[in-house]
Amino acid sequence: MISQEEADTEETVTCLHLTFYHPCQEDKMMFRCLNFCKREQVRADEVAKFGRDSNICHYNLLDTRVSRIQFSLQFYRKLNSSESCFEIKNMSKKTKLIVDKTELGYLNKIDLPWKCIICFGDYQILAEIQEGEAMDYFETHLHLAQVPILQERCLPSLQPIPENGFSSSSFSSQGKNPIEIDENES
């Protein structure tokens, strides 16, 4: 029997949490091939591919509007650092991939932010990286969203607030519409 002092240190594993949303998921069941039940291990030297072609992609989206390979994720470690990262690459010739506010054309790639929203067509995917120490593999944990992810995040409104400090929404709630006046009028 091995004592606690002699046992190997348990290493934490980097986990990529992906939450999927599509407005027609109830009707079209495009996520039925994804495993939402448990975490899956992916070898560090494998490229995680998402798309329609089950012969090439491990993560299948059953939708004819999705490219055979829509996008790929590559796990790597930064040079001279223990920080693990993912690189996302758009593999679709027809559809642009949007990562937060960055638009990627065919074969464009960027580092995946630790928390971001990936969009293409009507698909929304919330990606969150949970940092770990293991270098031989990482895990994916897939989730299914019932409401749009962009709506769920409830980002603050970026509408400007007028100099008087009242937004037009506070006027509408009082049953009045804002009146546009020239700043030179008194």
Chart the SSEs and their pairings.
Blueprint: E1 15-21, H1 25-28, E2 40-43, E3 47-51, E4 59-60, E5 71-77, E6 84-90, E7 97-99, E8 102-104, E9 109-111, E10 115-120, E11 123-130, E12 137-144, H2 149-152, H3 168-173
| Cα-based radius of gyration, to the nearest Å | 22 Å
Which word captures the global form? globular
Q: Separation of termini?
A: 88 Å
In helices, the fraction of residues equals under 10%
Biggest β-sheet, characterized?
Answer: 7 strands, mixed
Q: What is the average of the pLDDT values?
A: 84
Number of strands: 12
What ranges have pLDDT less than 50 throughout 5 or more consecutive residues?
A: 154-162, 167-177
CATH architecture: Sandwich
**What is the name of the CATH topology?**
Tumour Suppressor Smad4
Q: By helix and strand content, what is the structural category?
A: mainly beta
Order of helices and strands: EHEEEEEEEEEEEHH
CATH class: Mainly Beta
Keywords: Cytoplasm, Immunity, Innate immunity
Family: Belongs to the TIFA family.
Domain FHA: 49-121
Main location: cytoplasm
